[in-house]
Amino acid sequence: MRMYDAIIIGGGHAGAEAALALARLGKYTLLISGNLKMMASMPCNPSIGGPAKGTLVREIDALGGEMGKNADRTALQMKMLNRGKGPAVRALRVQSDKVLYPRMMQEVLASQVNLELLEAYVKELVITDDTVGGVRLEDGRCFESQVTIITTGTFMEGAILVGDTKRSSGPDNERPSIGLSANLRRLGIPTFRLKTGTPPRVWRDSVDFSQMTLSPGDGFVHHFSHDPDVLRVLPEEWPCHLIHTTPLTHQIIHENIRRSALFGGLVEGVGPRYCPSIEDKLVKFSDKERHQLFIEPESASIDRVYLQGFSTSMPHEVQELMVHSLPGLSQARIAKYAYAIEYDAIDPTSLKPTLESKIIHRLFFAGQVNGTSGYEEAAAQGLMAGINAYLLLEGRPHFVLRRDEAYIGVLIDDLVTKGTKEPYRMLTSRAEFRLLLRHDNADLRLSEHGYRIGLLPTERYMRFTKKKAAIEAEYRRLRTTFITPSEAIRNRFADLDIPVIKAKTSLTDVLKRPDIDHEAMRKLFPEHFTESAEIYEQIEIEVKYEGYIQKAIRETEKLKKEELIALPEDIDYHKITNLALEARSKLQAIRPLTIGQASRISGVNPADIQTLLIYLRSRN
Question: Which domains does the chain have, with CATH numbers?
Answer without folding.
Answer: 2-67+80-100+116-196+343-442 (3.50.50.60), 201-342 (2.40.30.260), 469-548 (1.10.10.1800), 565-619 (1.10.150.570)
